Each structure stands twice: as structure tokens, then as C-alpha cells.
Amino acid sequence: MPTIRPGRIAVHIALILYLALAIGPIVLILINAFKTRRAIFADPLGLPNSQTFTAIGFDRVFANSDFGLYFLNSLTVTVVSLGLIILIGAMAAWALTEYRFRGNTILSLYLAIGIMVPIRLGSVSILRMMVDLNLVNTLTALILVYVAQGLPLAILILGEFIQQIPKDLRDAARCDGVSEYRIFGSIILPLIRPAIATVAVFTMVPIWNDLWFPLILAPGAGKQTVTLGVQQFIGQYVTDWNAVLASLTLAIAPILVLYLLFSRYLVRGLTAGAVK
Fold first, then answer.
1. Which of 65, 171, 190, 224 has a CA 20 to 30 Å removed from the CA of 272?
2. Which ranges in the chain belong to alpha helices (H)?
3. 198-230: per-residue pLDDT in tens?
4. Helix 67-98 to helix 139-164 angle, to the nearest 10 degrees?
5. pTM for the predicted model, two decimal places
6. In the chain, which residues fall in CATH 1.10.3720.10?
7. Distance between CA atoms of 113 and 57, rounded to whole angstroms?
8. pLDDT in the model for residue 127
9. Name one Pfam family in it (predicted).
């Protein structure tokens, strides 16, 4: 029989504990969203039954808020930002890895610094810039900030994948007279789909869950995102926990669905290049 190493057991235990820590809050939100307020505090870990089950939180969300508008705003900001990050990031990664020019290394280092320095440190300057551009209380302001936030990581991940593509494929296409734009669109992009899925997951979740920039850049009526719209159910003295948990459940659903769809590509993207 194969021997089981203690180190491998410890790794699996650590992974199981981390899995419980990551999934636990999501499970708590889902099961308590369908329970009465009294049941939430009396037995937060218990499943809803015939006596505690209720959907009043969802009724309050749709009756007392413009949740559909909040959801549409979040979806618009996330989809547009994600599309721009992938498009610009892929083109920039292609340029930095394929062509050698003066300042190539310095530019790559500059982009790497963007990963290490949190963009929230520049919140005051960003707010002043948006005020000068008359973009406060617009979705455009959020999109511009999120694109700037996600580009450094996208360029780094996509650049690593592009470097693994055999140079012979590009040289053969050039010998056939294929333009650089056609090489990028027909050869490079299809081959880096796992990397694109990885970038999509890593950038989509922070954008969708962000509260900081919607709070300071787009707090006005009609421009609020899901995370900001949920705050109206949280008061200084009284909090409607049924509505809060119902809102969070509705906000989590699309992220879970997209993660399940892209999980195969995400795992492939994370492990690609680990073994030569």
C-alpha cells in the first residue's frame, strides 16, 4: 500500500480549513436569507425549516429599493471594465513581450509597481481629477478607475502566457504575409484563453464587490451599484437583516455562476507553465 506522508496530510488539512473559511460566509448568507429575523439570531447555523422559512427579505428588496437599477449599474461597470482590461491588457502584453524597444524594461517595471501599490492610496487625487473632468456621479468614472486598477495584473498574467507561445507560429504567419493585427487576433488571442479567463475572474470579483469607489465617485441616485445600494437597509440603530441578506444573495449569484463557468479555464490558467 502507498505510504501517506505527514506533510501531504497537513497540506490537505490546511486546504480544507481554508475552503471552510472561504465558503462558510457564503453558506451563512444563503441559508439565513430564507429565515425569519428571530431564527437568524436564534440559530444562525441552522437550515430553514417549515417554521423559519420566509422570503420576506426578497420582497422588501424589490419593494423598497431600485435593486434592478443597482444590479444593472454593477453589471454595466463590471462588463465594460472587464472588456477594456482584457483588450488593452492583451495588446499591451503582446507589445511588451513581442517587440523590443528602448524603455521596454522600465515600462514593465512601472506596470509591476501598479500591482504593489493600492490604488486607494490615490483616492483624493482621483476624486479631484473626476471633479475637474465633470465625471462625478457617472459610471464612466468607475470604469476608468477599475480599468487602471486591473491593467497591471492583466498585463503581467497575459504577458507570461504570450511568452510561452512558440515563436515559430508567429514567424510562419509573417512569412505567409499575415499582418501583425491578424496574428494577434487569430493566433495569440485564441491560445491565451485560459489566461483571459484567469484575468477575468481576478478582476471581476473586486470590481463587483467594491464599495469604496462607488461611495466616493458615484453615490448619487440612479448611479449606485449593488454594494452601495444595500447600505440603505443598514441603519445606525436598526438594520433590516432579512433585506440585507437577500440583497447579498442576489449579488453573489452572478459571481458564483460565472466562476463555475470559468473555473476550468481558471485552473488551467493558474497551473500553465508550472511544468515544462
1. 171
2. 6-32, 37-42, 56-64, 67-98, 104-116, 123-132, 139-164, 167-175, 180-183, 189-191, 193-209, 212-217, 226-229, 241-271
3. 888 888 888 998 989 999 998 888 888 988 888
4. 40
5. 0.83
6. 65-236
7. 44
8. 92
9. BPD_transp_1
